[in-house]
Design a protein that fits this description.
disordered C terminus; CHM1B protein; 2 domains; 86% helix; single chain; mainly alpha; Snf7_fam
Length: 185
Amino acid sequence: LTCAAEHLFNLKFAAKELNRNSKKCDKEEKAEKAKIKKAIQKSNMEVARIHAENAIRQKNQAINFLRMSARVDAVAARVQTAVTMGKVTKSMAGVVKSMDATLKSMNLEKISALMDKFEHQFETLDVQTQQMEDTMSNTTTLTTPQNQVDMLLQEMADEAGLDLNMELPQGQTGSVGTSVASAEQ
């Protein structure tokens, strides 16, 4: 059980590390978005597109870190259940030995007390198992849209108060207009 408890600690530490990495990626995504606005204001669409791609990559990386963190948390919950089950099994073995001794003496009060203790331990196990299942079912994953770069460029242009369609080269206006129309729908 001590080895499992040590692994449990390491899993929880890894999950926190993954969460920290996700937050770091979120910060870097925000910094890239600020760079997009500056590039759009300077009418430098090539640089704005590069920063948009970087922002999307950081966003996807943050999501991946969160996804991995959720998976590690799920494993940690399973290890926690195993540790708890080990403790309950050990307690049950003690209860069974006590029940054997009590049955030999046929003291009904002791039998009743032991059965109550046994039921209490099973109720505790049920609560812990339910908590683990709830944690597992609350784990969700996120998806991102196809035209992320164009939509992010339009969003940053809107926030900067600029008309992106007029500043894009001729070949790109259709895709941005389409993605904005689908985003509005």
